[in-house]
Every structure is written in C-alpha cells, then in structure tokens.
Amino acid sequence: MWGGRTNIAITLKSENTALSDVVVIGYGTMKKSDVTGSVVSIDTKSMMKRTPVNVAQALQGAAAGVMVTSQDGAPGSNSAVRIRGIGTINGDAQPLYVVDGVQVGSSADFVNPSDIESIEVLKDASATAIYGSAGANGVIMITTKHGQKGKANVTVTADWGIQTLPYKLNTLTGDDYARSIRDSKANDGAGLTNQIWSEAYDGKRNLIDWQDQMYRTSLRQQYGVSASGGTENTQYNFSVGYLNNKGIIVNTNYDRITARGSLKSKVNKYLELGADMNYMYSTVKGNNIGLGNNGNLSSQRDIAQMAPSLDYIDPATGEAVHVNVVNPDGTYGAGYAPTPDGWEGMTATAQNPYASQMEIGRTTRNSRISINPYIDLTLLKTKQHTLNAHTIMSWTQTNSDNDEFSGMYKRYNNIGGKMTEVKYEGRNQAYYSFGLGQSKGLSKSIETYLTYNWKTDFNTLTFMVGNTVSKYEGSWVSASAYDFLSPNNRLISLTTNAKSIQGNGGFNAQVRTISYYGRLVYNLFDRYILTATLRRDGSSNFSSGNRWGTFPSVALAWRAKEETFLKNVKEISNAKVRFGWGQTGNAGGIAGRSVYALSSAHTKYNFYALGAGGGTTGQLTQETGFYAPLVDTNLKWETNEQLNIGLDLGFLDGDLNVSMDFFTRKTKDLLLERQIRPSAGNTSIYTNFGQINNTGFEFSINYNKQINKDWSINAALNGSTLKNKIKKMGVDYTATCTGGNSTYSADDIDGSNIGAVSGTGFQWNNHSICREGEAVGSYYGYKVAGIITNQEMLDKAKAQGQDAQMGDFLFVDTDKSGTLDDGDRQIIGNGLPTMNFGLNLGATYKNWDFSIYSYGVLGMDILSYSKMRLSIMNPSDDAWTPALLKDSYKKMYNSETNPGGTLPRLTRLDNNKNSRISDAWVENGNFLKISNIQIGYTVPRKWLEPLSLTSVRAYFSIQNLCTISPYTKYGDPEVGQGSVIYTGLDTGRYANPRTYMFGLNVTF
C-alpha cells in the first residue's frame, strides 16, 4: 500500500533505445514511424534542464493532453496528473506508471529524474489497452539509464538552490486591522471585547508580519553519482542520489535517498540474464502547520490572516502587555484574548503560530525496495523469423510509518518588567499527545510472454502473447494517547490517562490478478500499418460473475509520405494519418466491496465482552453491534472507451514537425457509492451507474534548427482542449468542504436528498456536484444579484427569507418559489480548464545554452474559499479575527465612504450568510507560469583532456520565476486536489517557492 493506493507490480524486460529511432510501448518497442496510437516522447535532455524533484514535475507543460497540477509547495508534496480529462469519480484518476517494464501504480515519485533515459506517454486506448484494467487514465512509460558496452564512465551531479516566498498576500496590518475590527463591531451594534484594538492603542502595538516570521529563505541541495559501462556480453549501471529540500516555512523538510542498479549478461547467443534493482527512502518533517490540539494553520492564507499583534490588556492591571514572538532569552511569548465568558487563552496556534510550528514533532518515513530479475531466451533467429521468450519475476516491498508529538508548552510574557509564565487553556500543567502509525505492502508477480517477428521484402508481422500472475498483500497499525507529563515520553503506556489510549490495525484485503494479453502488428509496404491488442484481466476485487474483464483495441496508420504522389515532395518530410479505437478498465477503490464482510447474509452482528460496560466479572455484556455491509454482487469494471484520429506532418527536412489528435473518451458503468434509505440497515451501497464523456483536440508544434556551426534554436508549443460532460448519472453526487477536507454523498435512489445542503457559516456543504449534463465536480451554489443598496432590494431580500441589512448580498431566487432555499442553488462554474498549454524555447551559441519553459491554462474557474476568507470576517468574537485582504477591504460596502462597494459590509455576525457558497467567490483561474529559465555553459573538450575528464557543464536557473494571472492577489491559481470531484477548489495551500539554482555536472 503506497499513499493509500494498491500497487500491483508486473515486470517486463526493459528496452534501452534511442528516442530518435524508436519509442517504448507496452511490452516492447516500435519505430516512431510505425506507431499507430497517440504516443508522445518527452525530450528528457530538455526536461533535466528544469531540475525537477520528481517525474510529475518533469511532465508539466511537456506534452499535449497531459495536465500536471502541483498539490502545493510543501517539500515532498505530490502532483495531480490528468491525461485527457477525467473519466472516473470515486476511482483513482492518476495514470499508470511503468518503470523499466514494471507497473508501479499511480505514482513514480521514488524515481530520481537524473536516472531517466526516456519517457513516453501513451494517451489513447489503442496504445493503453495492452495494460487493460490499469490503463484507463493513460500510461507513462519510464526507461531508466542502463549500461552500454565500452569504457566505464562516472558522472557526478551537484545542484544547490536558495528558495524564497515568491509573493506575499497583502492583508491588513497595524492600525488598519484594528480599524476593521472596530467598524465590524459598530456595524453589529456591539462594543469591543478586546480593548487592545481600540483607537487609544493605535500606533502603540507591537506589530508582527507573520509572513516574514513564518517564512524563511531555505536551501535545496541534490547530489548524484552514477557509474556505467560493460563488455561485449555484460553491461551495468549503478547510481545513488540524495536530495535535501528544506521548506520555506520554518521547521519543514524533505530528505530522499535513491539507489538503483541494473545488470545484464549475455550467457550465449540464445540466453540473456538480467535484473533491475531500486531503493528509495524518504523523510518528511512538519509539513502540517500547528498540528494536534494546538490548532491548525494549513496555508499561506492562514498565516497572512493572523492578527498582526499578540498584544493584549492584562485583566489584572488593565495595562497593555506587549508580546514578543520570541523573547530575548529564547522562550516564546503568548497572546491572549477576552471571550464573553471571561479571560481565557486561545489555542496555542492563535497564541503564537511560530512557537507552535517550531514545537511540532511530526515525521513521516517512506521506503520502497524492488528486485526484478528476468530471463531472455532466443528460441528462433533466421533472416525472416525470430522468436523470443521472456520470463520475469518482480518483488516489491513498501513501508510507511509516521509519528506525531504535540503539546501545550510553556509561554512567557514581560508583565510589569518581569518575565511571567502565562497559563492558558484552563490547564495547570503541560499537555502532550503522541501517536504513531505504520503500513506495509508486498507485491509479487511472475510473467511470461513470447514475441514472434516475421519479415519479408514488403511486409512485417509482429505477434506477442503473454500471461501474468500477481498478488498484493498489506497490513497497517496505529496507536495514540494523550496526557503525557513530559515531551520526552514517546511510549504509549507512559500516558497518565489510560482511557486516552486508542489503537487499531489489520490486514488489508489481498488482491490477486491473472492476465492474458496479446498484440499483433502488421506493416504492409511500410505504408499501411495495423495494430490490434487484446487483454483479459481477472481480479479478486470482483465477484465470480464479473471477475473477468476483456479489453480490446485496434489502430490503423497510413504513411502517406511513402505514396508516390508525396514521396518526391521535398517540402513535406513526413505525413501520416492515424486512427485508433480501444477499451480499458478501471476497478476504482472497490477492493472488498463485492463480497460480504462477515457473511453472505445481510445480518446484524452483536459483540460481547466479559464484564464490559459495567457488567459483573464473568458476565457477558453487549458492547456494540452492526449490520454487515450491503453489497452489489454484480459489481463490474468501469469501462473506458476511446476513439482517436491523428495526423503527423513534417516540413523543412524534418526541422518542423506538427502533430494533431482529435479524441473522444467515454467512461460507462461508473463505480459509485449510492445512498439508500437507512431502513435497509445500511445508508449506502457501492454499485455501477453513470457515464462520463470527454472530447478534445490536441496539437504539438516542434521546431529545431541548426543555423550554423555556432547557433541552433528550438521551440516547442503544445496545447489541448477539453470538454467534460456527465452523460448519464440519474442522481446528483456531491462533495462537502470544511476548510479543505472533503467528503462525499449522493442523492437517494428515488431522487430525494439525504442530508442537508446548508452551506452556512464557513462550512461549505456540497460545494461541488456531479450532475447529468454538467462537468464532473461542477461548483454548486447561489447566484448573487448584487449588494443591497436601497429599500426595494432590502424588502425583496427579507421577503425571500434573508436576514439582511443594507450592504449585504441579495441572492437570486432562481426557482421563483418566493423563498431562498436549497432549490435556488445552481451550477456556478467548474474547475476543469477548457485548454492547457506549454511553451518551451531554447537556443545554443557555441558552448552556451539558454532555455525557458512555461505552461498555463485557459477557461478555468476557481471556487475560492480563500477569497471568501479574505473578504468575510470570522463569525466569532475577538479570540481570533482574520486579517482581511487590503483589496477586499477597499471594495466593502459602506453607506458613507463606499456606497458603490462590490463586497458585503463589515460584520462579525454574518446573519445574512454572505459567506455561503455563491458565484461571488468564483474567480477567473487563467494563468501563465514561467516555470524555469536557465543558462548553461559546457566546458570545451580540449580543456578537459589534460584533466582526464569527458564533460563538464555548469548552469544557473530560476524556477517559478513569475505567474501572470488575475487571481494572484488571493493565492496561487494552480490549485489542485487529490480527488477529481473538487478540482479547482482553493482552500489555501503551502506556497510554491521561487528557487535560484546553480548546478555542476562532471563526467569522468
């Protein structure tokens, strides 16, 4: 189990090939000119100039139809990769990664990008159907560097970087912040509870810029050593890499160690033996800010909105106490705030977020090791016929463990000239909590496949057939407790509160698969090419009636350039038409869903314990009971069907190449959890229903020109359009957000809604919806008619049930019922861009090289929880009041100073629920990012020969140089979430850093 996903390792023999001649496809290679499907080769040489931390970063903006969205800027964070839209709701929408022939699941973050030789992206079903149930979301083929015969060479790489916060959120500070609190209190007809914000203290408070305090200039360093070489019969390649990436938020860090080795030996002309080995160990520290019961800061917005002063009025003396973040003696200060019930402390995070962050004790450790030996046997080899057999075994072990220690530490303020300990949270002693968890998984597989080739003067035939048997099993355990007396107590049994101990664990459901597959490629006259594949997968995830899925594909290509009417046209160097159709599958997250957990009957089970529940010792007492989950025994695979029509053109003797594809992608029999009436003994059932369609157009234009012996230039532009639509759903499927966390629910089988759709306060219930005729995860909210500025508008608002005043939002009664209710919520946007693109430019002059990489999106909406939080005050008292965005503050309605304001009046009560989900919080998410700019210098070979060096290159680069977008005042427009149903929802994030890198590559 890796990151909550089940990975089944299926190992194939890797093919080390030159990208200029061939591309790597499933279970083999093929000449580029013979490819019939939609396959894109990534320019790995250019890719490495971006110094990516992981594979997903390397793909960003590099291929048409591939959209990569950074989840956030925390060190060690992941990215969401989508190929040709979204074709599932509950399942994993990430593509399949295949590394050196091994299926590794939906992430390849364990791969050091420096070890990569080539990357191919298989996009359409005619190319991915060979992977059957694993290829529904596309396939990314990664081939790492392998040894070649010849002299041994050693390459050393070193990269050093400085990371900074690229921009700050411009929130209210100092006296402006205090004035906003006073104005909101006046609008609510209330007085200040915390007098530190009164006008008498303007200009006298100890001010804090929390973005300066919490963010730092951090270091990133990466080193690698590789050695490769070999004889005529034996070749090897070994590498080791180390990455240390300190976060730009204090006390956050990511470390990663990678090691890999490959060895192959030709025993004789018929037999070759080989093996690939990979190891990764990573440590992530403190990425969640303010963990545990100390409170929670999860984003740059949270940090920017902290009150710009911790000062307070001492209730004992009535004097102002000026609070330091860090006292001269190294201890931490603490803010206070009054509440209606008297003087109490805030949470530790609100008291002093810097101290809370520095005292975090959370570490996550991940490791992965895989060993993949293979045997390659040549059974037949003549001029016209070859027959090869491959048998491969794979063994992969993954482990993940984490521990978290948090507590209430001592704080000191200078009160009356004396450092005095501050008590808070009603506790007289420190309070500590400790928890830990561990999960591990083991994947094993054995695979055998045969490849037959037949070649004559005018045609070629390749036929491949194979079988795979694989198994995954895993386990997990967790434990936690609180009320420890010392921060050094890291043993659960040392808690002073035995009742606080919690523990859980178990074995994950075993997953077993058996697969049979085959592929036929026929080439006639080097002009007409046919590719046909068939795969049949059997999975233990499904009941016996639907255990097997069959996934066919067929593709045709016509190399028109080889026809007599084009062969002598010098202006056209390539012309090929492609057509492909195929089906793939997706099992979603259905492991264990298709069989009853305890029995084949739908039965309630009661559990008893001796002396439990206050019972007498030796007496059986009922502890709890539950119903075995109701399941659909007819569950089957989601089916993904694609149609692709493509055109490849070349001009100017191959310097200019253009590729275009039109595709349709239809996913049916969606695996969804449907709500049912509780009277059935369950509230939901997992079943197949629904269909999603994706259609789009892709293009790529590549130009490479050697102008003269000194100058060369290159340019690459790619783009893709996308239209996503739920063709069949029947009932609505919704998601709920509470400041960043999402859950899912669906309407009842008869269309009635189970659970309220309120959207009150800051809890955004059902913010996104999957509805027939709309895009997946469309935003679902109210429409705003404007700011109430006259009596007529106010009367209308009150008539439809709004508790409104002048300066509040007037919401639209869209269903004309006369009452504002859930029936007035509408589709107000969606987070899927209609177009994404990448533009990469480069040039070389003698030994100098220059490159610039950019990417962006168009037609994207952002549902901005961040904008709402930056524009609406917290509906509470003075204990914690978020600082508003200066731009939002200027736009707020005020009958005297700003009667034309476009944002609601200042209020702490929000009786009108201006903060509810509405189109007021939907923003234009279009952006263009200059992701990397680099200049490099390669030392002339003649200077290196006396030093016995082969090559030396140095470079300087800037990553995340700038973002052009109307959204940047609220945060980064590149918002991504793990789940497809809330794509484009901005709840705040760890800011992506700007990085200044210097690197050196030396080969001996």
Structural features, described:
- The protein is mainly beta and 1004 residues long.
- Among the domains are: 22-147, TonB-dependent receptor, plug domain (Ferric Hydroxamate Uptake Protein, Chain A, domain 1, Beta Complex), CATH 2.170.130; 525-726, Maltoporin, Chain A, CATH 2.40.170.
- It has a 22-stranded antiparallel β-barrel. Strands 3-8-9-6-7 form a five-stranded mixed β-sheet. A five-stranded antiparallel β-sheet has the order 40-39-41-42-45, with no helix packed on it.
- The longest helix has 14 residues, at 174-187.
- The model is unreliable at 1-20, 289-296, 340-345, 426-430, 594-618, 620-626 and 737-761 (pLDDT under 50).
What attributes characterize this protein structure?
single chain, 1004 residues, mainly beta, Ferric Hydroxamate Uptake Protein, Chain A, domain 1, Maltoporin, Chain A, 22-stranded antiparallel barrel, 5-stranded mixed β-sheet, 13 helices, 53 strands, 47% strand, globular
Task: Report the C-alpha radius of gyration, rounded.
Answer: 31 Å
Helical residue percent band: under 10%
Give the CATH level 1 class of the domain at 525-726.
Mainly Beta
Number of strands: 53
Number of helices: 13
Briefly say what this structure is:
By secondary structure, this protein is mainly β.
Map the helices and strands.
Layout: E1 22-25, E2 28-31, E3 39-42, H1 44-48, H2 55-59, E4 66-70, E5 79-83, E6 96-99, E7 102-105, E8 116-122, H3 125-128, E9 139-144, E10 150-164, H4 174-187, H5 210-214, E11 218-230, E12 234-246, E13 253-266, E14 271-285, H6 300-304, E15 312-313, E16 320-321, E17 336-339, E18 342-345, H7 348-351, H8 353-358, E19 361-381, E20 385-408, E21 411-415, E22 418-422, E23 431-455, E24 459-484, E25 502-507, E26 511-524, E27 528-539, E28 548-559, H9 564-567, E29 572-586, E30 604-610, E31 620-627, E32 638-651, E33 656-668, E34 671-675, E35 684-688, E36 691-706, E37 711-721, E38 723-728, E39 733-737, E40 742-746, E41 764-770, E42 778-781, E43 784-787, H10 791-799, E44 809-811, E45 826-829, E46 835-845, E47 848-858, E48 861-864, H11 865-871, H12 886-891, E49 922-924, E50 927-938, H13 941-944, E51 951-964, E52 985-986, E53 994-1003
Parallel strand pairs: 6-9, 48-52
Antiparallel strand pairs: 1-2, 3-8, 4-5, 6-7, 8-9, 10-11, 10-53, 11-12, 12-13, 13-14, 14-19, 15-16, 17-18, 19-20, 20-23, 21-22, 23-24, 24-25, 24-26, 26-27, 27-28, 28-29, 29-32, 30-31, 32-33, 33-36, 34-35, 36-37, 36-38, 37-46, 39-40, 39-41, 41-42, 42-45, 43-44, 46-47, 47-50, 48-49, 50-51, 51-53
